[in-house]
């Protein structure tokens, strides 16, 4: 991947001239490297969010526990949600989008390589901003509320955002959250939303415009389709949450009264706007995992995906219907009976396309020659656990039943089956599946399987008991539970805590496996999984320029059909020259016939990110008076960087740039 | 496809200006004349706004002369916005009326 | 060959133009939220009737500033047309005219806001006022960003070689943005100001 650029143009300052080392990563515009940056950042987020979950589970392991204070619990519960959603699952999905999208459609890079880098840096600085609330933020003593022991301030662990990831008004207004912590939430969500908005536009244009010759829409891998749907969901749901938190920011800092019931505002408005974003967000989280699983299952079943077009259209249908079910989060918020009936029906309807997908995945495995590799195990884990989460979700669509379950641990159990059993399992399937692609080495299978079973067991130990806890009446978002609640509650809380540590063990096993395999894993040959899609026709690790020659696509699963013919009964038969074909792919892939021009590295996306970082602090402290200088500094850095950006050409003039074919 | 000439653009702008004048006229009709109620003028005002909207999109934003994908792209956002916010407003008004 | 910009565009629409359309499409959801706020709160009055925004509006004044913004769309499209014809001089003039009309509109809004504040309105007087100021202020910010981009284009056009072909696309993109801000105002003018 290393390359040297000669004679960079001087603009504001010297253009980065190397793609190696620290600055090589900071200035990169290569979609693969940006994907890797997203991946590592997201995994770090996963670790932090996971540690928070362990602390929460320790607090809830025993009755009347005082391991955490109430303030600390509130902050940990809120930031666990915010981090897992915005700083783990979404960026991890973005890692896969970035890395795979151009490879799967046969493109040199995304449509806007520098904007792509910009998305990452805005995301990273937004993540740092939100996380820094632990250091700089204050919870404050709410009016009418009290911190335990009469304390006026909370420890650093209790100083982050504390109004829930859903930030319900009026709890998130200054009356009940007087400290600066929730200002980090309002501004942070706008920054993170901006990052996702930019990347969603980038992906939409890339998919529509950058496809290789012959890559028609209905020849695209399902993962690309799911990326496409996800990008549209982001495009249309992010503006809604941006408007909502923008209004919350004004309510908190500048005296507007949108959500303040005492002044005539309406807190239910927040709920509508939040869930108008929040429900599409559920699909934003789970669709990428569905895409990955739709790639993994056919490969290891040695069969094409059953009902390709049904899976694609079901994905699109989920996208559209996802905008019509938000109020099922609000049955207990005093919405009208008409709305309850209508949203109940819509929610049941959305189970149909989801069900179609599940049957198609089962149909793919049916009669296939299944290889139980680690990625396959995770994919099957995804399907089975997602079914449980999906079914318990359908039970919530029924209003009277929902009233029983709402705000209990039943809900916590349900959505963790969807988000952990679904999204996380799917993402791990992807990590194992694409590890050889990233590193050129294979992940250790034995440790991998051990990790799968540990995680699968831990996941069920943690989240299944939450259903019983909820049905027994244990409320969610609760700091302590009491001995009088009975033995069942005590037992299952303890089991859930044991399960959480089992998951933590499995993540540790994964980290060890990852580091070991990256150093000493078996060297991966081309196409190690005998896969179907064109990204596997590349030599491993992938050269910086991706395809030496842009491929021409003639079929769905093009690569497979180049490797295999069919006998009279439709069974796959390797083409006689398969070995030579693969050897030729490696040879040709590493030796491009002509000089390939790539988008050159740039400092400016990073610098714009730095500007936005300052801008964010400025906004959070604007009403307090200290924010203005920060705001101005940030704006100047940002505008200056944009000007530098606009006079810097995307590529160096052609004669001055050569990229080594390593 | 041939792009319009400046003359055509100016004609479109005059059309838009006339519609705006009619809108303001309707406003004063409703405010100043007995017997004319908002229920009569409001639909007319909405239709006029829609015509102005579509004229600007079609002529000045060139959607008339672009591939259909552009208008499809643009309408998705508009339709989703109209749909979801209409539901939110209706629901919140009904819930508010129930007390 | 094979550099990103050489790859044929599968839809036949230039990348940056498609991106701009996608962005504008998503902006409907943003403005939609703010317009909805106003509609939601305009019937809910915790204050006296006299303090309702409808009793503050100066329709002749706002009609004129609406007209100004509408005409700026004409000058914008003429700038684009002139550049397409290779007429750098006219393009420059129309660009400046568009920016000037935009500034006039912003000045009108500034005047309107200060009149309202003097007469007792404010962000926190009632939710309907919160909605009014956030909606029109947010729109005004969009106009200001548009003016900034127009001025940058104008400065570039002053250089010896004028606006290049690549900047012609930039001008078209700024134009799309500008017209979009105009159609949002068409909606605001009718729904907020004219319909009682």
Q: Evaluate the radius of gyration of chain A.
A: 25 Å
Tell me the fraction of residues in β-strands of chain C, as a range: under 5%
Tell me the helix content of chain C. over 70%
Structural class of chain C: mainly alpha
Compressed to H and E, one letter per element, the order of chain C equals: HHHHH
Q: What's the average pLDDT of chain C?
A: 90
| Count of DSSP-assigned helices of chain A | 19
- Which sheet architecture does the biggest sheet of chain A show? 2 strands, antiparallel
Task: Report helical residue fraction of chain A.
Answer: 55-70%
Features:
heterotrimer, B: 99 residues, mainly alpha, flat, C: 196 residues, elongated, disordered N terminus
Kindly describe this structure:
The complex is a heterotrimer of chains A (662), B (99) and C (196). Chain A is built from 19 helices and two strands. Chain A is globular and about 75 Å long. Chain A has helices spanning 21-26, 31-59, 70-105, 113-131, 133-136, 181-209, 222-253, 267-301, 308-321, 337-365, 374-397, 399-405, 409-439, 445-471, 487-520, 558-563, 578-590, 604-620, 627-647, and strands at residues 564-566, 572-574. Chain A is an all-alpha fold and 662 residues long. In chain A, 62% of the residues lie in helices and 1% in strands. By secondary structure, chain B is mainly alpha-helical. Chain B is flat. The model of chain B has no long low-confidence stretch (mean pLDDT 91). Chain C has five helices and no strands. Chain C has 196 residues and is mostly helical. Chain A binds chain B through residues 232, 235-236, 240, 266, 268-269, 272-273, 276, 323-324, 326-327, 334-336, 338-339, and chain B through 76-77, 80, 83-84, 88, 91-92, 94-96, 98.
How are the secondary structure elements laid out?
The complex is a heterotrimer of chains A (about 650), B (about 100) and C (about 200).
Chain A: H1 21-26, H2 31-59, H3 70-105, H4 113-131, H5 133-136, H6 181-209, H7 222-253, H8 267-301, H9 308-321, H10 337-365, H11 374-397, H12 399-405, H13 409-439, H14 445-471, H15 487-520, H16 558-563, E1 564-566, E2 572-574, H17 578-590, H18 604-620, H19 627-647
Antiparallel strand pairs in A: 1-2
Helix pairs in contact in A: 2-3, 2-4, 2-15, 3-4, 3-6, 3-8, 3-13, 4-6, 4-18, 6-7, 6-18, 7-8, 7-9, 8-11, 8-13, 9-10, 10-11, 11-13, 11-14, 13-14, 14-15, 18-19
Chain B: H1 6-32, H2 38-60, H3 68-98
Chain C: H1 15-42, H2 59-84, H3 88-118, H4 127-157, H5 165-194
Helix pairs in contact in C: 1-4, 1-5, 2-3, 2-5, 3-4, 4-5
């Amino acid at each position: 991947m290393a390359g040297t650029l000669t004679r960079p143009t001087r603009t504001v300052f010297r253009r980065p001239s190397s793609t190696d080392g620290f600055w090589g990563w900071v200035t990169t515009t290569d979609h693969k490297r940006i994907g890797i940056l997203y991946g590592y950042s997201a995994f770090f987020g996963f670790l932090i969010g996971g540690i928070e979950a362990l602390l929460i589970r320790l607090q809830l392991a025993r009755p009347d526990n005082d391991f955490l204070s109430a303030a600390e619990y509130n902050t940990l519960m809120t930031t666990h949600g915010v981090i897992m959603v915005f700083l783990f699952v979404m960026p991890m999905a973005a890692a896969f989008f970035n890395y795979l999208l151009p490879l799967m459609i046969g493109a040199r890079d995304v449509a806007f390589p520098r904007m792509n880098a910009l998305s990452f840096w805005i995301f990273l600085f937004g993540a740092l901003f939100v996380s820094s609330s632990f250091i700089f933020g204050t919870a404050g003593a709410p009016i009418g509320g009290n911190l335990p022991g009469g304390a006026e301030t909370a420890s650093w662990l209790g100083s982050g955002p504390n109004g829930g990831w859903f930030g319900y008004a009026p709890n998130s207004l200054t009356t009940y959250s007087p400290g600066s912590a929730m200002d980090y939430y309002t501004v942070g969500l706008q920054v993170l939303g901006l990052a996702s908005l930019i990347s969603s536009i980038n992906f939409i244009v890339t998919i529509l415009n950058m496809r290789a010759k012959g890559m028609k829409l209905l020849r695209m891998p399902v993962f690309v389709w799911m990326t496409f749907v996800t990008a549209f969901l982001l495009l249309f749901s992010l503006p809604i949450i941006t408007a909502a938190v923008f209004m919350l920011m004004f309510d908190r800092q500048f005296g507007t009264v949108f959500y303040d019931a005492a002044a005539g505002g309406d807190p239910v408005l927040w709920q509508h706007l939040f869930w108008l974003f929040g429900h599409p967000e559920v699909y934003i989280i789970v669709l990428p995992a569905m895409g990955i699983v739709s790639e993994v299952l056919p490969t290891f079943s040695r069969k094409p995906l059953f009902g390709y077009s049904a899976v694609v259209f079901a994905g699109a249908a989920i996208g559209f219907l996802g905008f019509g079910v938000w109020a099922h989060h609000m049955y207990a918020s005093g919405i009208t009976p008409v709305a309850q009936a209508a949203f109940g029906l819509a929610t049941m309807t959305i189970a149909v396309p989801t069900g179609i997908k599940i049957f198609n995945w089962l149909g793919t495995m049916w009669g296939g020659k299944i290889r139980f590799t680690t990625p396959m195990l995770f994919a099957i884990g995804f399907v089975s656990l997602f079914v449980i989460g999906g079914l318990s979700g359908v039970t919530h669509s029924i209003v009277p039943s929902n009233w029983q379950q709402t705000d209990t641990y039943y809900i916590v159990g349900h959505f963790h089956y969807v988000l952990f059993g679904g999204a996380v399992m799917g993402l791990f399937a992807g990590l194992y599946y694409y590890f050889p692609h990233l590193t050129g080495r294979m992940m250790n299978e034995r440790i991998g399987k051990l990790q799968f079973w540990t995680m699968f067991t831990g996941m069920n130990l943690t989240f299944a008991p939450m259903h019983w806890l909820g049905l027994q009446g244990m409320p969610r978002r609760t700091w302590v539970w009491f001995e009088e609640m009975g033995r069942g509650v005590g037992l299952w809380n303890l089991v859930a805590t044991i399960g959480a540590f089992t998951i933590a063990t499995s993540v540790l096993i994964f980290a060890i496996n990852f580091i070991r395999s990256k150093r000493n894993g078996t060297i991966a040959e081309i196409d190690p999984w005998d896969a179907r899609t064109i990204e596997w026709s590349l030599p491993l690790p992938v050269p910086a320029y991706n395809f030496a020659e842009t491929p021409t696509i003639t079929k769905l699963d093009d690569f497979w059909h180049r490797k295999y013919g069919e006998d009279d009964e439709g069974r796959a038969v390797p083409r006689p020259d398969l070995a030579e074909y693969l050897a030729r792919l490696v040879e040709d892939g590493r030796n491009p016939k002509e000089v390939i021009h790539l988008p050159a590295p740039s400092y400016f996306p990073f610098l714009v990110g730095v500007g936005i970082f300052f801008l964010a602090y400025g906004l959070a402290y604007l009403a307090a008076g200290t924010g203005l200088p920060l705001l101005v500094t940030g704006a100047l850095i940002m505008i200056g960087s944009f000007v530098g950006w606009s006079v810097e050409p995307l590529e160096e003039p052609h004669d001055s740039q050569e990229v080594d074919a390593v | 496809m041939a792009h319009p000439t400046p003359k055509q653009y100016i004609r479109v702008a005059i059309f838009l200006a006339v519609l705006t004048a009619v809108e303001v006229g309707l406003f004063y009709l409703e405010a100043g004349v007995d017997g004319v109620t908002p229920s009569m003028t409001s639909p007319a005002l909405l239709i006029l706004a829609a015509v102005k909207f579509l004229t600007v999109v079609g002529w000045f934003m060139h959607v008339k002369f672009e591939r259909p994908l552009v208008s499809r792209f643009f309408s998705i956002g508009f339709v989703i916005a109209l749909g979801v916010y209409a539901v939110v407003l209706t629901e919140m008004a009904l819930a508010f009326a129930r007390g | 060959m094979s550099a990103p910009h050489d790859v044929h565009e599968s839809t036949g629409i230039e990348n940056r133009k498609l991106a701009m359309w996608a962005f504008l499409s998503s902006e409907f959801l943003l403005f939609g939220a703010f317009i909805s706020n106003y509609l939601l709160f305009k019937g809910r009055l915790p204050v006296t009737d006299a303090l309702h925004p409808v009793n503050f509006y100066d329709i002749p004044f706002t009609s004129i500033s609406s007209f100004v913004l509408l005409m700026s769309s004409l000058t914008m499209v003429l700038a684009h047309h002139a550049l397409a014809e290779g007429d750098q001089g006219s393009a420059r003039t129309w660009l400046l005219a568009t920016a000037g009309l935009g500034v006039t509109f912003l000045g009108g809004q500034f005047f309107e806001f200060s009149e309202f504040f003097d007469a007792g309105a404010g962000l926190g007087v009632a939710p309907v006022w919160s909605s009014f100021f956030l909606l029109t202020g947010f729109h005004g910010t969009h106009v200001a960003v548009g003016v900034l981009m127009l001025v940058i284009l104008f400065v570039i056009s002053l250089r010896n070689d004028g606006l290049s072909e690549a900047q012609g696309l930039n001008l078209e993109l700024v134009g799309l943005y500008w017209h979009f801000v105009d159609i949002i105002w068409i909606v605001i003018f009718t729904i907020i100001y004219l319909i009682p």
